[in-house]
Amino acid sequence: MIGQLTGILVETNFTEVILDVNGVGYSLLIPMSTFDRLPEINEKVTLKTHLHVREDALTLFGFSTPEEMQLFKILITVNGIGPKMALNILSTMPVSSFCSAILNSEIAVINKISGVGKKTAERLIIELKDKLSKLSAEVETNSITSDIPAEYGQNIEDAILALEQLGFKRETVKKALKKLIKTLGEDELSTANLVRLSLKLLNS
Asked: Domain limits at 186?
C-alpha cells in the first residue's frame, strides 16, 4: 500500500497533481485544501496518500496533512459518500470546521456543502459523531502545537484532559495553553508544568 509520496511537482490543477518520484510520474487526485498548500512547479513536495481500489480502477488520492487523509478515509465509510463527495467536503471547509459541525449537529452548516442535502447531512451526523471525536481532538492539539517539536504534542493533550477533569472548558484551556506555549522553552513543556502554569493563568 502506498501511504506517502515525496517527489517533484510536475503538473497541477485544482483537483489533480502529477509527482515525479525517481522518474515515475504518479497522478493523484487532491482536495482544494491540499492544492492551496502546494509549492511551485518543479519543487519538492510530500503528500500523504490513499489508494482507492475498485474492480474497474485504482485511484490514488493525495493530501497535504494526515488529518485531511484521516477525514477522507472516515468519510468514504459512510453509506452514499464516495471519494468524489469526500474530496468535495474537504475542498469546502477545513477539517476542524467539519468536525465541529458534525459534533455540534450543525445541519445548516453541513447542508451548505455542494451536493449535500438535508438527509445526507443528517446521515453524516449520525454515522460520524463518534468517529470524529478523536480526530477533532487531534486537530485541536495540532493547532496548539504547530510551533513546537512534535514529540511534545502528547504532553499538550494530556494537559488539556487533566484540566478538563478539573472542571475547565476545553476551549478555555486551549486559549490558555496557546498563550503559555509562546513563552515556554522545550524544557518547560512537561505535562505537569503545563497543568501547573495553566492553572495559574486560568485562576488569575
From this structure: 147-202
79 pLDDT band (50/70/90 cuts)? confident
H/E segment holding residue 4: strand 4-12
SS3 61: strand
DSSP element (H, E) containing 44: strand 44-54
The string of pLDDT tens digits covering residues 14-47 is 899 999 999 999 999 999 989 988 999 999 999 9
What is the C-alpha to C-alpha distance for residues 9 and 28, in angstroms, rounded to an integer?
11
Rg of the chain's alpha carbons, rounded to an integer? 19
- Indicate if 53 and 79 belong to the same structural domain: no
CATH code of the domain covering residue 73: 1.10.150.20
The structural domain count of the chain equals 3
In a domain, 125, yes or no: yes
> Using 50, 70 and 90 to split pLDDT, how confident is the model at 104?
confident
- By the 10 Å C-beta count (0-12 exposed, 13-18 middle, 19+ buried), 72 is classed as buried
d(CA 85, CA 76): 8
Looking at the structure, do residues 42 and 86 belong to the same domain, yes or no? no
Sign of CA pseudo-dihedral 41, 43, 49, 52: positive
Calpha distance 25→7 (Å, rounded): 9
